[in-house]
Design a protein that fits this description.
Layout lengths: L1 H27 L19 H6 L9 H20 L7 E3 L6 H12 L13 H13 L8 E2 H10 L5 H4 L18 E6 L4 E6 L2 E9 L10 E4 L2 E7 L6 E9 L2 E5 L1 H6 L9 E3 L2 H10 L5 E5 L1
Parallel strand pairs: 3-11, 9-10
Antiparallel strand pairs: 1-2, 3-4, 4-5, 5-10, 6-11, 7-8, 8-9
Length: 297
């Protein structure tokens, strides 16, 4: 009876030793031997195999360096998800003007963050567009264009064309055609989309203009003002054409409320549209029947 109890106790001790030994091997990383018995796990810290596992030459210590880059990458990624990168050197801010601001605005229009202009002036709408662009891409929301913001925008856009830079007008008037340099002339440039009122070679007024589409183009050449009609209404399209100055059949220089509202998103039916009503009103009072009209590229 006592022998049976002793055997049972020894068997239970062996099971406990085996379980403890497996746990120790998993934590310590020492290799298990097929010939090792349950009792071999108890003095594991003194066995030759255990000593070998703690030696510097063992491959085990080399594992942490191998996993270090992945850990470092995760650490590097954490700040970018919670804190935006620091702004770079300021390039442009509110109140700045010039061609580089115009380019910034044109690029912001390409990614649909700005709908006004470009104007070449860094105002409230430009600052709001920059701030929105920055926030969307995890950058510091300053509304000021710094080097970090600018480089990000450059990667997402293309160099603006001249039409994009002056999508809403405001181009400098083109060099006058030689035919505009004598007499009284409405000098109309399709290249710069401007009309200049010139007298004896001097430019007295310039305003943005819009032309006909490819299906109803504005004719080019030298013409003369045939007649004027201050409150004209088109007999073909039944639309108002205030301050109309006809120069080629049904084509005229006149004020266009559509041009004033939509800008270059639309086109005329061949007329030269003016969107500045105050300017066209003054021009209408100065131009005489018989004055020259030059339309050129």
């Amino acid at each position: 009876m006592r022998t049976s109890v002793l055997r049972s106790a020894l068997a239970a001790t062996g099971v406990l030793a085996l379980v403890g030994g497996c746990t120790a091997q998993a934590v310590g990383g020492a290799a298990s031997s097929p010939s090792a018995g349950p009792a071999s796990s108890a003095p594991a810290t003194h066995s030759p195999s255990a000593a070998a596992s703690s030696a510097p030459a063992s491959p085990t210590p080399s594992a942490p360096p191998a996993s270090a880059p992945a850990s470092a990458a995760r650490d590097d990624a954490k700040p970018s998800a919670t804190a935006p990168p620091k702004p770079g050197r300021t390039l442009w801010a509110r109140g700045d003007e010039g061609p580089r601001v115009r380019e910034l605005q044109a690029r912001l229009r390409q990614v649909a963050w700005l709908f006004d202009g470009p104007t070449g002036t860094y105002g409230a709408s430009t600052a709001a567009a920059v701030e929105g662009f920055q926030g969307k891409r995890g950058l510091a929301r300053t509304g000021t264009t710094d080097t970090v913001t600018w480089q990000r925008l450059l990667r997402m856009t293309h160099a603006p064309s001249r039409d994009e830079l002056y999508a809403s007008g405001g181009r400098p008037a083109a060099k006058p055609d030689p035919r505009c340099l004598t007499g009284r002339v409405l000098c109309v440039s399709k290249t710069s989309r401007t009309l200049s009122w010139m007298v004896d070679g001097k430019r007295l007024m310039t305003t943005d203009v819009r032309f006909g589409s490819q299906y109803t183009p504005t004719r080019e050449g030298v013409f003369h003002v045939d007649f004027k009609s201050r409150h004209h209404v088109s007999t073909i399209y039944h639309t108002p054409m205030p301050y109309a100055m006809f120069f080629s059949g049904g084509q005229a220089v006149h004020y266009s409320s559509d041009f004033a509202a939509r800008g270059y998103a639309g086109a005329s039916h061949g007329c030269v549209n003016v969107r500045d009503e105050a300017k066209i009103a003054r021009l209408f009072d100065q131009v005489r029947t018989g004055d020259k009209v030059v339309v050129y590229w």
